[in-house]
Amino acid sequence: MDWTSSPASALHGELAVPGDKSISHRAIMFAALAEGTSRVDGFLEGEDTRATAAIFARLGVRIETPSASRRVVHGVGLHGLAAPDGALDCGNAGTGMRLLAGLLAGQRFDSVLSGDASLSKRPMRRVIEPLAAMGARIESEPGGLPPLRIRGGSDLRGIDYELPVASAQVKSAVLLAGLYAHGETAVREAHPTRDYTERMLAAFGWPIRFEPGRAQLSGGHRLRATDVVVPADFSSAAFFLVAASLVPGSHVLLRAVGLNPRRTGLLDALRLMGADIRELDAREQGGERVADLEVRHANLHGIEVPVALVPDMIDEFPALFVAAAAAKGTTTIRGAAELRVKESDRIAVMARGLRELGIAVDEAPDGAVIHGGRLRGGEVDSAGDHRCAMSFVVAGVIAAAPVRILDCANVATSFPDFTGLARGSGLDVAPAAPR
Ligand code: S3P
Is pLDDT at 287 greater than 90 in this prediction? Predict the structure, then answer.
């Protein structure tokens, strides 16, 4: 599925982007393992999170959908999951697969986790190794690739683990296995990552100690049902933050966006570039800080992205590449090698696409140098990566002529109805004419 994104005039109006993907995955998982019935409001109706819900249905958990973006989960308790009748398909979702690997390692039954072509190329050794150190038995394809075959009935023991890469998914996999382990499980991280697993375990009543850089829990407790309100996904808001910043005359309000400090590195980076973004009516919602974000057009200039911000904006680099392409001067990104093992190699995909549109980009193994300039129209390949596809839509809006974007179907993994919302705000994006 290809899209065309054409130059547009200003963005206007109020936008409610869909629920947070990271929180939606975890809400289903913890509610499923809790005792009692939990309601999830603001659930992301994306393919990734629906795949996680479908997996728990296959594991014997009754999940109702009273209306869109709502789920009622009838938890079965920590030991109440049933053996599935075949492989569990995580779709495109690294979060789904890595967190489930930890959770399923603690079950009495065997299971297999599979995924789509992109997920089947993503590194799983980073979870297999710590889980094996806890006593889990997990086999993969050569090179640590999915599918993962997880043996049940393992006797897990807690570990003290220092993350070799900044990854909330790995941290969460270890903590989830820790629920089933004897003794204490601790995870230490040199670069703190999103702490949704820690916060949500606490909200579901599991005793856990955590602070930036460290989380510790012991096995053998219970999760108690609780209701979860999912804030709007900052990563989905990011495309509109960048588009409204770049298009003259724009003025947009993004409603109730989750502003967990481990997610908002792009806000800091855009402000360093000169963006005009205000947080209005900051409040707490379901244990997370949320605010309405008011964005006005501003003249952006290039920056050296502070390396300390990288883990806090790891999903927002495709959007930042586009902001940098349109900014005055040069933007340097370093310390972001993780971008090469996301849903695509995001450094390569964004560099190639922007070059097609006339922007000079020098690639480095762990980042890029982007020389801001005037974007022209053309054809770019998103490589099936949802965030690259949406970022190229933003590029089309500020280009001199329409941009054709190849392979956009996976936008539905994280942002169903992106095009509807985008059009409502004034963007000109539509299915491309067949060739
Ligand atoms: C996520 C963690 C990040 C992020 C992903 C969601 C999570 O991945 O890129 O989109 O929900 O824990 P890593 O843990 O691989 O950095």
Answer: no
Instruction: Cite the annotated binding site for phosphoenolpyruvate by residue number.
Output: 21, 94, 122, 169, 346, 387
Average pLDDT, the chain: 97
Contact between 133 and 161 under an 8 Å Cβ cutoff? The reply is yes
Residue nearest to atom 10 of ligand 1 (CA): 315
Q: What is the pLDDT of residues 24-45, one digit of tens each?
A: 999 999 999 999 999 999 999 9
Beta-bridge partner residues of 4:
404, 430
Q: Residues with Cβ within 6 A of ligand 1? A: 22, 95, 167-169, 172, 194, 314-315, 338
Q: What's the pTM value of the predicted model, to 2 decimals?
A: 0.98
Q: Which of 90, 95, 176, 387 to mutate to test the pocket of ligand 1 (most atoms within 8 A of CB)?
A: 95
What is the residue extent of each domain of the chain?
3-19+231-431, 21-229
Class of the domain covering 3-19+231-431:
alpha beta
Average pLDDT over residues 116-129: 97
352-391 burial, b for 16+ CB within 10 Å, e for fewer? bbbebbebebebeebbbbbbbbebebbbbbbbbbbbbbbb
Q: Architecture of 21-229 per CATH? A: Alpha-beta prism (3.65)
Give residue for tokens 């904006």. Answer: 313
Residues contributing to the annotated binding site for 3-phosphoshikimate? 21-22, 26, 167, 169, 315, 342
Asked if the domains at 3-19+231-431 and 21-229 fall in one CATH topology, the answer is: yes
- pLDDT for 178-205, tens place per residue? 999 999 999 999 999 999 999 999 999 9
Predicted confidence at residue 435, as pLDDT, reads: 84
Burial 246-273 (b: 16+ CB within 10 A, else e): bbeebebbbbbbbbbebbbbbbbbbebb
- pLDDT at position 214 is 98
Q: In this model, does residue 286 exceed pLDDT 90?
A: no
**Closest atom of ligand 1 to CA, residue 341:** 15
Residue whose structure tokens are 């053998």:
220
- Phi, psi angle pair for 265, to nearest 5°: -55, -35
Contact at 8 Å (CB) between 258 and 248? no
Instruction: Give the single-character DSSP code of 224.
Output: B
Confidence class of residue 399 from pLDDT cuts 50, 70 and 90? very high
Give residue 249 CA to ligand 1 midpoint distance, Å. 34
More confident residue, 118 or 287: 118
